[in-house]
Every structure is written in C-alpha cells, then in structure tokens.
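Reading a protein record of the kind used here takes little practice once its layout is understood. Each number in the token line that follows is a code from a learned vocabulary of backbone shapes. One such record is shown here in full, so that the layout can be seen directly:
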Amino acid sequence: MSPAVKYTLARLVLFLAVFAALWFVPNLSLLLKLMIAILVSAAASWFLLRNLRDDVTAQVESAVDRRKAEKDRLRAALAGEDEVPADAGEVHKTQA
C-alpha cells in the first residue's frame, strides 16, 4: 500500500476516534464536536503520525528526482548531445 494512502487512512481513523470520544459529551452541538475533532486530530497527527508523514515525503522526493532526471535526459537528447549524462538528475541534488 502506498505511504500516502496509509497516511490518509491513519488521519481518518484518528479523526473518527476523537469524534467518537466526543460523541458522548453532552451539551455540545454536532458542528462543535466536528470542529473540535478536526483540531484535536490534526494536532495529534502531527506527533503520532510523524513516521508515516516522513515516508510520504520520501516517496514524493523520489518521484521528483526521477522526473528531473528524465527531463534532463530528454532535454539532452533533444539538444543533440551524443552521450546523455548518466547522473543528469544528480546535478540538481548537488546544487541545492
């Protein structure tokens, strides 16, 4: 399963758990319970879901690096260069 899907499902489960806990609190409107659940689950996910968030970040970073390398390879091929550098994507990493 994709790290992004895992993170999204974990955020949803965390929200539902907080909302379920608030369901039994009397004298609060449904809208207020939803708003509190959103805020509390967002704050809790910042601390509890750090590893999943890091996995998503690594996945996105990897995809960006692959796309940059492919773009550099295609530009070099279109420019008529005989040899396309094998580390075309690595140029961006060392400059950043």
Notes: The helical segments are 3-23, 30-48, 50-78, 90-95.
